[in-house]
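[Help] Beginner question about ligand-bound structures

Sorry if this is basic. My supervisor gave me a protein sequence and a SMILES string for zinc ion and asked me to "get the holo structure". I don't really know what that means in practice or what format the answer should be in. Inputs are pasted below exactly as I got them.
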Amino acid sequence: MPPLPDPREGLAGDLEDRVDPGPGACPACRGGPVSCHHRGFGKSWARPCWDCYFLGLAGAVAARGDCIRKRVGAVLVSPDHRVLSTGYNGSAPGQPSCKAGGCDRCLSAVPPGSGYHDCIEYHAEWNAILWSRPEDRQGAVLYVTFEPCDDCLKLITGVGIVRVVWVDPAGSQRELIPGTK
Ligand SMILES: [Zn+2]
Ligand SMILES: [Zn+2]
Ligand SMILES: [Zn+2]
Ligand SMILES: [Zn+2]
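Answer (accepted):
No worries, everyone starts somewhere. Holo just means with the ligand present. The predicted complex, written as structure tokens, is below.
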């Protein structure tokens, strides 16, 4: 049997990017070598911390977002770091998306972050919660690519999620404990 390919093959970037900064050092949030556009991991030898790992996953999920204005991804995670569900924003199954002209709000000139009551879409957080098991939500952590709106925060608080983590537009990690805002 031929030997397995060396996982180092095919990784782009300089050799310095492959230096492991040591246990506990996350390249994205703790200043290690950064070479990848996804918050600094992927092409580096350093392992991301759990927060950066799941925020990176949420970023991948966001690519499926079906909105003309913004694509958002969410990942619901158990206390022992297992993915419970994912969600992205879009219209109800079978309904035309706002890209297809289905949402007057999204096609209007309403400022970002407002007018959600006139929007047909299910937010990423909503979908992630909807497709998880109720008993799994207790003590779970929700990772999102954008700050949750007030309606989602209300839902997040009500279903037993204990921590919400997102990245602000400047690229800084933010978080809140539901029910304490
Ligand atoms: Zn990190
Ligand atoms: Zn939309
Ligand atoms: Zn809309
Ligand atoms: Zn929302």
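A couple of things worth pointing out: Residues 7-18, 34-40 have pLDDT under 50 and may be disordered. The CA atoms of residues 80 and 140 lie 9 Å apart. Feel free to follow up in the thread.
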